[in-house]
Design a protein that fits this description.
mainly alpha; 8 helices; 47% helix; 196 residues; 5% strand
Length: 196
C-alpha cells in the first residue's frame, strides 16, 4: 500500500472473501473505501472474455459490493503496468518523454561536454523509476546510438553505443547506455530492495 493505493496478489479469487472484513474496518474507522470503478482485478492466466465473465460472476457471489470492479489483462499501479497483458506498456510514456527531451537537448546545440553531462544525468534518469521493476526499455541499440551521436553533433551512426560508453579510455567522459543503465537499476532493485 502507498498513500491510498492498494495492490494485492491473491492465490485464487476465492480469497477475496478474506478482504471484506479489513476493508470494512478501514471504511468504518478511517472513512477509506474502495471505489469499484477504480479497482482492477488482473488474472494471472491466459486472458479471455470468458475468464473475465467467470471472475465477475464469482466476485458477485463472494463480495457483491465489489461487482463493479474492472477485470482486465493488466492494470496500472504507482506508475507501473502489471499483469500478463502489460507487455511494454510501462515504457510508452517514459520513452516518449525521453525522446522529447533528447530532441530538445539536440536542438539546443549545447557543447559536447555539457551534452554528455545532460545525457548522463537528465536523460538517463527519465527511465530509472520504471527500470526498477521492468525489463530494459524497448529502445534498440541503433536508436540509442543515434541519439547519443546527435547529442555530440555527429551523424547518427558515427560511433557505436559500446564505444560511446568507453570514451573514458581515451580521456573523455563516457556516455551511459540507457539499456545498460536500466538493466543495472533492475538488478540493484532485485539485490538490494527486494532481496527475498
Amino acid at each position: 500500500a502507498c498513500a491510498d493505493d492498494v495492490g494485492l496478489c491473491l492465490y485464487a479469487v476465492a480469497f477475496v472473501r478474506f478482504l471484506r472484513e479489513p476493508f470494512a474496518a478501514a471504511r468504518a474507522l478511517a472513512n477509506l473505501s474502495l471505489h469499484p470503478t477504480k479497482a482492477v482485478m488482473v488474472p494471472c492466466a491466459q486472458w479471455s472474455q470468458e475468464l473475465a465473465d467467470e471472475l465477475r460472476r464469482r466476485l458477485s457471489l463472494l463480495a457483491p459490493e465489489w461487482t463493479g470492479w474492472q477485470i482486465a489483462p493488466w492494470a496500472r499501479y504507482l506508475g507501473f503496468h502489471f499483469g500478463p497483458g502489460a507487455g511494454t506498456l510501462a515504457w510508452h510514456a517514459p520513452l516518449q518523454r525521453f525522446r522529447d527531451r533528447a530532441t530538445e537537448a539536440v536542438a539546443s546545440g549545447m557543447p559536447s561536454p555539457l551534452a554528455v553531462t545532460t545525457w548522463n544525468t537528465l536523460l538517463i534518469s527519465l527511465t530509472n523509476y520504471w527500470a526498477q521493476l521492468c525489463l530494459p526499455p524497448p529502445l534498440d541499440e541503433s536508436e540509442e546510438a543515434r541519439w547519443m551521436n546527435k547529442m555530440l553533433h555527429m551523424p547518427g551512426n558515427a560511433i557505436s553505443v559500446a564505444l560511446l560508453a568507453r570514451l573514458e579510455d581515451i580521456g573523455v567522459r563516457s556516455m551511459r547506455s540507457v539499456r545498460c543503465w536500466s538493466l543495472a537499476a533492475l538488478v540493484r532493485t532485485a539485490l538490494d530492495t527486494l532481496p527475498e
